[in-house]
Each structure stands twice: as structure tokens, then as C-alpha cells.
Write a structure and sequence with these properties.
Blueprint (H helix, E strand, L loop, with lengths): L18 H13 L3 E5 L5 H7 L8 E6 L3 H8 L3 H7 L4 H15 L3 E7 L13 E7 L4 E7 L4 H18 L2
Parallel strand pairs: 1-2, 1-3
Antiparallel strand pairs: 3-4, 4-5
Helix pairs in contact: 1-6
Length: 170
């Protein structure tokens, strides 16, 4: 799945983009790895942050915004029984989303975000409950978070933490 055209020099630090996203893309490029993103609560913010970095197109395969629960099953292959019994805000859902986007988009790394940004609880989970799924050629992990703040703050912090957590594993 590695992109032979992924060159660390192709990711440029031109004052554009996000510093954490740039650092992650540099780490991926050093490994020769590509990334794909499956987003629920972040609704596209994570992949948008990644592609704000010049040169990202050589490393970012794409993103799937599966905001509706049924799309997590239909687009990403998340077990529908799991979704029916535990809901979309669940660590195993995050794990399956990351694996599914990695497989379906042909990336080396899959990362997912699912959780509750608010204003109301969902699937029996409190506002600020977040799960980040990460699937690499070497590991599969879920990072649980309990975040505070407004809806926008929860979403922004999820993106920041996802970038840091993936970078820590590349």
C-alpha cells in the first residue's frame, strides 16, 4: 500500500497548514506510509487539516465522512450488530472504522474519530466522550478521550489529539 511517490521533501513547510498536521505528514513520508481518514464527530475537519499542508496529496489517500450511523456499516464495514447494540460512540466502532478506511482507501494508516461533541449525550455517552481509532501496519489501537468545552472545542481538540496520536505511532 505504500506510495512509492511519497517523498519527505514533497511535504513543504511554507507557513500554510497546521504544524501538527505537517509534523505527522513528515513522519509518514519518512516511513513511506500513506493515510486515510474516517470521520464522524469531526465531520471532515481532520482530513481538511491534513490537506491544508502543501504536498499532502502525495500522502493523504482520502477521507470518508460517515456521520450517519448506517454509513459506518455501509461505507466502512463496521459490524451492524455492534452498531445496533452499542451505538456509534464505542471503542470497537472506532477500531473498525480505522481498519475499514485503511482497507477501502488502500492506505498504510487508517485513523478514525467517533464521539459526542454535544450539545446532548448520544448512545448513552456523555458530551466530550471521544474515541480515536488508529490502524497501521504495526498496530491497532483506540485512544479514549474525555474532553470538555463547546461543540467546536471538542471537535478541534479531537483533531489535534488525533494528529498527535497517529504521529506517535509512525
Amino acid at each position: 500500500m505504500t506510495d512509492p511517490g511519497a517523498d519527505p521533501q514533497s511535504v513543504r513547510d511554507e507557513g500554510e497548514g497546521d504544524a501538527a498536521a505537517s509534523a505527522l505528514l513528515h513522519a509518514l513520508a519518512r516511513r513511506g506510509w500513506t493515510v486515510a481518514v474516517a470521520e464522524s464527530l469531526t465531520g471532515g475537519l481532520l482530513v481538511a487539516t491534513l490537506v491544508s499542508v502543501p504536498g499532502a496529496s502525495s500522502l493523504v489517500r482520502g477521507g470518508v465522512i460517515a456521520y450517519a450511523t448506517d454509513l459506518k456499516h455501509h461505507l466502512l464495514g463496521v459490524d451492524d450488530t455492534l452498531l445496533d447494540t452499542r451505538g456509534a460512540v464505542d471503542p470497537e466502532v472506532a477500531r473498525q472504522m480505522a481498519a475499514g478506511v485503511r482497507d477501502r482507501l488502500g492506505a498504510d494508516v487508517g485513523v478514525s474519530t467517533t464521539g459526542v461533541a454535544g450539545p446532548d449525550p448520544q448512545d448513552g455517552q456523555a458530551v466530550g466522550t471521544v474515541f480515536i481509532g488508529i490502524r497501521t501496519p504495526e498496530t491497532s489501537v483506540v485512544v479514549p478521550l474525555e474532553l470538555a468545552g463547546t461543540r467546536a472545542e471538542v471537535r478541534a481538540e479531537t483533531v489535534r489529539r488525533a494528529l498527535d496520536e497517529v504521529r506517535a505511532r509512525t
